[in-house]
Amino acid sequence: MKKFLSIGLCLLMIFGLLVGCGSDSATDTQSSSTEDIRYVNADGDALYRIIQPDESNVSSSAQKLFKAFKDIGIRMTSTTDWEDGTDTYEILIGSTNRTETATAKNMLADKTGCRYEDYIICNIGQKIVIYSQSVSGIEAAVDYFIANYVKADGVKGGIEYTFADSGDFENITVNGVPLGKYCFIRPHYNSSYLTEVEMQAVSNNILERSGYFLEILHDSKTAASDHEIIVGNANRDGVETVDDPDKYIIRVAGSKIYLNGGSAHAVAMAVTEFGKLLKGNVTDTVITGSYTETAASYDKSTYYTKTWGDDFEGAGLDTTKWGQVTETDSAPGKNGKLSVRSGDPRDVYVADGKFTISAREDENYYYGGMIWTSGKMYYKYGYLEMSALLPHGEGYWVALWTWSNDTESSDGTGPILSRPEIDIVEMFGNSKYYAANCHAWPTTDGEKLGYQHTSLDNTHGNDKKYTLKDDGKVLGDDFHTYGFLWIDTMMGFTCDGDLYFSYDTTTLEQDTEAFNHMMYIRISMANNWESAPYAGVLGDPADWENTNKYSVDWINIYQCDDAESIMHCGPMSTLKK
pLDDT band for position 9 (50/70/90)? Predict the structure, then answer.
């Protein structure tokens, strides 16, 4: 897990979310057709339309094919696979969500092993499929299709053409089945970025060695198939949960492979260790291991390992890690009441393995709460990740954020000039989306140098927002992972394993000063705070009654053991510089 993991992953993570791995059962009912293909009906109008994936990286190939048909007088429409394709003639390009694409992929795997640059062109029922795992393979396939099959009078005898990359590759199989038939299946929600990075690393290594590309697919977006590498608690038959947070398991059983662990980092390690097994023919096996013991053998200068965290499994809040903030002064709230972050155990508590802040009101107050690690834990650089359930409904102001108590400038030559506030999660009521932010707050000494408050609101207002795209779902429905990657030149923000925004902290001098200080963590919720940017009072009373809890399952920090990253447990005054 390299130090600059976020940058590489941002460039490489392209998911084929809707095409399953090879399914042997698909070829039992469907295969390439030998019927003649006509592109137009009796009136000369186009019968087919061109379909590409909704989140597509093959748009240029689709446009090229559209133009090729237009040049011979056939005007096809071109759209994405979000439109229903039932009983419709379509030319499918790339990893569409049509079952015919999955069938064609399986046919390709049977014929060539389905290496990354291999491609297939075939007609199945009312569909013509042009498929490859790689963008360059799709481009080559479209060029071949245009040169050989784009004809005004159609194609006699149907289409079936496959191309196999003839490179010098290792032959890797699982119980005799080419690894190219497999893909990673991960949970759609609450998956760790650490695991995502390790899956990508294994996939890249296998691609270089064998020519096989292991796609990373989401369980709820992909139909179950015969050959899958099932990661974590993905929604698949045969998954066995692991309770011990230090334990990881690798289980190869027939055509399925299960990689799991009792914590986010243990799951990531199961993926890492599985990658080491992929040589020659892998057969049925069960391997169990300890995260702590295995991590001891890793190069920790480049691999992120856990340095601090809390699973909230005790009877109460661990006071060696957290302080509880009890406010004596209240802020103005809605409806003539006051809003306060309370220390009352009805509002802030640990139960059932989770830390929870529960909203409450009486005739005078709206109650929320806050805990922090100030005086207990400070850190510099690394990856912070939290699994949490957000409340949903107007009036809730929820945050996971960091702050600094440093008194010296980041280079240690004088007083602090700009103080950092990092909003990893900030959500105002509607949990359909939340926002991240990077604030640099100039001190009095910084203002003398001309420093001003900076944030991302004006420059990256929409980019730094994470919006849940699933229809009818809000973040308050399920637990999700929220992450923050921090190195000396960049900050990145993740949700459910995906990096959705990153920020270069070296552009402005005051940002460079602010974002290289030791920081501590705050978890907070306020309710009906009058100055918070949400409109009106609580809407549906059911929101206040039923979805009024901010619950944290776990929170961890992972760091490299290098000269730059620091973990300090105790007051700042005891930190040796």
Answer: very low
In this structure, which CATH number among 3.20.20.450, 3.30.379.10, 3.40.190.10, 3.40.50.11460 belongs to the domain 5-12+171-295?
Answer: 3.30.379.10
Residue-wise pLDDT tens digits, 144-154: 999 999 999 99
Whole-number Å distance between alpha carbons of 156 and 36: 4
Helices (runs of H) and strands (runs of E) counted in the chain: 11, 35
pLDDT, averaged across the chain: 90
Label residue 169 exposed, middle or buried (CB < 10 Å: 0-12, 13-18, 19+): middle
Q: How far apart are CA 325 and CA 367, in angstroms?
A: 13
Fold agreement (5-12+171-295, 306-574): no
Residue written as tokens 């961890």? Answer: 556
For domain 306-574, the CATH class is mainly beta
Q: In the chain, what is the straight-line distance between the N-terminal and C-terminal CA atoms, in Å?
A: 28
Strand partners, 436: none
Return d(Cα 265, Cα 3) in angstroms, integer.
16
- The number of beta carbons lying within 10 Å of the beta carbon of residue 408 is 13
Say how many residues make up the chain.
Answer: 577
The 10 Å CB-count burial string (b at 16+, else e) for 416-436 is bbbbbbbbbbbbbbbbbebbb
Mean pLDDT computed over 152-162:
95
Instruction: Collect all residues with Cβ–Cβ distance below 8 Å to 348 and sequence separation of at least 6.
Output: 317, 324, 342, 356, 357, 358, 369, 370, 371
